[in-house]
Amino acid sequence: MSQRTPDGESRLEEAVRIAITREERMESPRGEWHDRLWYPADDERQTCCEKITPTESNRQALESHCRTQAHIAKLFQVPLPELRRAVKRARDADRGPARPARPALSLHTLGSPGGRADVLFEASRSAHGDALQELRAEAQRFERVLPRLIAAPESGDALLELLEEASAGVDRLHLTIEYCRQAETTYDSARVVRDLVSRLFEREKKSA
Q: Where a domain ends, among 46, 70, 94?
């Protein structure tokens, strides 16, 4: 039986929650600043942190590391591959398509102003805007990793941790790009359907 936290979560469940909230910058690792450099708190620091040294050019090196799944796996003492799979399942579940009920439809229901075609278009436009905003934010997060990759050490634990962080960033960016692509396709299709149904509705009104 898996050990549970005081809130009733298993270690893996809490690790997944922390990994996602830290990656999305909704929660921060425990730590504080000393001489303009960020260091993890004693209960945050793990063995994987030992080879990472913040510098004037990268003051938050340890803070960024503490957001990686590799660090969080050590923090919660769960296998890294298991954490990665669980995070992916959680993200896929969050992005899963909604399945609304299917009411009886008519041209009037679809095509009248404020009808279902308009509702579908507005919903897809909102989702499209959210997807673009998420894509821009994810691209900016990944952009911050690139200078560190360019200046990466030739070997050692610091390189492995950096590669782990970059790999996780690539995975998130790829998923966000795919999400944005699907949102764009849905938005374009909804616009076509709305315009077509609107023309049919107007034609039916004129012939009535």
A: 94
The pairing of strands 31-34 and 37-40 is: antiparallel
Contact between 40 and 105 under an 8 Å Cβ cutoff? The reply is: no
**What are 66's two structure tokens?**
């503490």
Evaluate whether residue 100 is within a structural domain.
no
Among candidate residues 63, 94, 125, the one where a domain is terminated: 94
3-state secondary structure of 103: coil
pTM above 0.70, yes or no: no
Please provide the size of the chain in residues: 208
d(CA 83, CA 184): 30
Reported confidence tier of residue 158, pLDDT bands at 50, 70, 90: confident
SS (H, E, C) 50-75: CCCCCECCECCHHHHHCCCHHHHHHH
Cβ distance 67 to 29 under 8 Å? yes
Same-domain status, 11 and 85? yes
